[in-house]
Specification:
Blueprint: E1 3-8, H1 16-29, E2 34-39, H2 51-67, E3 75-79, H3 85-94, H4 99-103, H5 106-113, H6 121-135, E4 141-143, H7 149-166, E5 174-176, H8 211-219, H9 237-249, H10 255-261, H11 267-293, H12 297-324
Parallel strand pairs: 1-2, 2-3, 4-5
Helix pairs in contact: 2-11, 3-6, 3-12, 6-7, 8-11, 9-11
The structure holds adenosine monophosphate and tryptophan.
Tryptophan is lined by residues 5-9, 40, 43, 130, 133-134, 142, 144, 148, 151.
């Protein structure tokens, strides 16, 4: 069985972009692949967090993994810090990453360009930790949204570099980025991606949003004055974004099919249908979320997930340390 691995940072609440770009694919693939889906709680502290809020977000994040359909009997769900090898291999990978490579990572570059101050060292070296997250498990594929592709590509470079230097240690993984929905845009500004750091709160639909609020966000989404439902992300970014949302939430319905249904109809009708799709999905997730939240399912899933992941990760870390010559071999 081929293996797949991915993670999500529990920085703030999970949103529709996370679901469409990442989470739904984890669920889709869990039958066909050996799946490792973790909560990246080391990555999320690369920016300041409020401890109480973080704790709540962590639990919510696991609950939402389960509520979206990840099944702990099939997928290994775990907290990054429960498998210590992540931080340990993360440091080793950091020592094999060039600063020039880290300087080219767009996430850090963007924050620097915006003039943000007091950026942490952890934020700068985060791609090395992400490489460790992946390489510990020798996955074949890493399903991610578009914004993470660059990090998976760096991971490949690092794997090849280490394999050349120390003999084959790692499988070189492939990023898996869907054709539709890998970059869901903000509803209030379709030139920016939908993100947890949306200050206005109008452009981002959270998976735990009240259904009425979610509907309102869709209905007030920024569109254009072309007056036709047509897929063209360059000249109609708002409409195309809504089409991507609709398609992704209805079994990857073809764009041509959506265009045909709304031919000659107004944007109001179209938005109402998109809102129905979004609210239908949220309602299902939220019902299951409520069931999961106070059950023992979260703890049980994390415990068994971390136990299974640790066996693989510890073995890989030991092999890497040995290959580098970091261990004293007892005579
Ligand atoms: P993050 O919330 O940054 O930890 O992202 C978790 C996963 O969701 C990653 O695979 C991202 O690429 C994906 N993701 C985040 N935002 C979006 C978005 N707006 N559209 C599609 N995928 C996204
Ligand atoms: N960096 C990813 C994000 O911000 C989360 C992440 C951490 C991840 N480690 C990973 C994703 C390993 C895939 C594989 O979205």
């Amino acid at each position: 069985m081929k293996r797949m691995l991915s993670g999500i940072k529990p920085t703030g609440q999970l949103h529709l972009g996370n679901y469409i770009g990442a989470l739904r694919h984890f669920v889709e693939y869990q039958d066909e692949y050996e799946m490792f889906a973790f909560i990246a709680n080391l990555h999320c502290i690369t920016v300041p967090q409020d401890p109480k809020e973080l704790q709540k977000n962590l639990r919510d994040c696991v609950a939402l993994y389960l509520a979206c359909g990840l099944d702990p009997a099939k997928a290994n769900i775990f907290l990054q810090t429960d498998v210590r090898a992540h931080a340990q291999l993360g440091y080793i990978m950091c020592c094999h990453t060039y600063m020039g490579e880290l300087n080219r990572m767009t996430q850090f570059k963007d924050k620097m360009a915006k003039g943000e101050t007091n950026l942490s060292g952890g934020l700068y070296t985060y791609p090395s930790l992400m490489a460790a997250d992946i390489l510990l498990y020798d996955p074949d594929y890493v399903p991610v949204g578009e914004d993470q592709k660059q990090h998976v590509e760096l991971t490949r470079d690092l794997a090849i570099r280490m394999n050349n230097r120390y003999g084959t240690l790692f499988k070189v993984p492939e990023p898996l980025v869907a054709k539709v929905g890998a970059r869901i845009m903000s509803l209030s500004d379709p030139s920016r991606k939908m993100s947890k750091s949306d200050e206005t709160n109008k452009g981002c639909i959270y998976l735990l949003d009240d259904l009425k609020a979610a509907r309102k966000k869709v209905m007030s989404a920024v569109t254009d004055n072309c007056a036709r439902v047509h897929f063209d992300p360059v000249s109609q970014p708002g409409i195309s974004n809504l089409m991507q949302i609709m398609s992704s939430l209805s079994d990857d319905r073809p764009m041509g099919d959506i265009e045909a249904e709304f031919e000659g109809k107004g944007y109001g009708d179209f938005k109402r249908s998109v809102a129905d799709c979004v609210c239908g999905t949220l309602e299902k997730i939220q019902t299951r979320y409520q069931e999961v939240l106070d059950s023992g399912e979260i703890d049980a899933a994390l415990e068994s997930g971390a136990a299974r992941a640790s066996v693989i990760a510890d073995e890989k870390l030991a092999a890497v340390q040995k290959a580098i010559g970091m261990e004293i071999i007892l005579k």
